[in-house]
Amino acid sequence: MNTNSANLMALAPNTSNKRETVCIFGTGDFGRALGHKMIQCGYSVVYGSRSTQISNLIPKDAEVLSHAEAAQRAVIIIIAIQRQHYNFLTPLAEILHGKVVVDISNNLKLNQYPESNAEYLAQLLPGARVVKAFNTVSAWALQSGALDASRQVLVCGDDMEAKQMVMNIVHALGLTPLDQGSLLAAQEIENYPLQLFPMWKFPVFLSLGLTAFFFFYCLALDVIYTYVYENNNFSFFIAITIPNRVCPVMALILLGLVYLPGVLAAIIQLYRGTKYHRFPDWLDKWMLCRKQLGLIALAFASLHAVFTLVSPIRSFVRWRTSKGIISQALNNKTEPLDTTNAWLSDSYLALGILGFFFFVLVGITSLPSVSNSVNWREFRFVQSKLGYVTLILCTAHTLVYGGKWFLSPSAYRWYLPNIYMLSLVVPCTVLVVKFVLIFPCVDKPLTQIRQGWERNPKSSE
Ligand code: NAP
Question: Is any atom of ligand 1 closer than 6 Å to the C-beta of 63?
């Protein structure tokens, strides 16, 4: 059978469950997993291998031939071999001429080679129609059928028809093809599986750093100070009391840090009188990771809610309550209800509950599946307006809780302020600046600048 008739057979419309024949070069982990999945989905699979001996690892119903023989049996050839071995393809250039050659390879490091593996393959096989695909799914996910990782397969290539053929296969395997454009996108697609939460690095390191700082700050003031000056051993505070102080503080500071770059950007635009100058790099990067900062803040707020709920069952809290009751009984005196305190305590709880509710709402809306179902205006409303409502409620919750201590000298152990005071610096700054920015005399020029108006427009020559 000559090559052309094989091509025609492979492309012929199919009325049965059987799909076309696909050739896979390489009987390694990925080649076998992909072949297995393809056979399940009705494709005929023929392997091109250095050894034509069938091992029991090879999927049943698949054939194993030499590379040249296998390539002649299909229009689509998937190269399941590492890039460093691609040289063996050069003698096959003629057989692969006009065929759809799919590069699925990944590298060990970001930007490991000057050109992408797919572009390198295209240079080795100038007559082939090279398409990049499948490198974002793992052999394990394909083989286990669980597909518990991403189902998205990023596809790119210069030949539209070839790309469409590969996307049809991706689709038939129950995966989601995402067209990324021409082969120029291959480098980015190859770097994609090597990235480890790129947008999370800064928020995670910042959170870890601040958490460690506040933990040791509380340890010094609540455990070491009381041990040294009051001879009380409160070391058990490390388990719940200190985490329950650090978590709300972290949640509030990080939430403030989500909105701080927005007000800084507004100040910079007002100062420059234009939106057509780039922000400093650090501000750009900060703005890009606001969602991650917000989600970490939500995690701290959730932990705070759980720690607070377990308070009544803590031995220390039960001891303190019974001590109060017993001392009232011994003194034969019932303390009257302090309505001011009752008001403060109920208000701070109500503000906390409302703040947490809005916090969860804003967090849920930032999830892609939810944000995809709202339009841009609705998304902005939730993220910006409701986000500020959350910040106001959480700041008020902290102020009402800690307000009475701010002026008390006992709150300044070792002349240091309580962490609740420190936690208010960022959110209060953001809220005060935001309050100034919404004044009509400031808001009007800012809105004009954001619509393209310039204070000193460059004259066009
Ligand atoms: P592998 O298990 O090491 O298999 C590679 C296959 O390449 C070998 O089984 C062999 O097949 C062939 N080969 C090895 N040396 C060769 C040479 N000198 N000349 C010609 N062929 C040679 O690797 P793999 O995990 O299947 O990965 C294959 C490709 O898929 C890689 O580019 C990888 O980046 C990519 N990938 C893998 C995964 C994954 O989860 N494993 C995920 C995405 C992408 P024969 O013995 O049949 O000739």
Answer: no
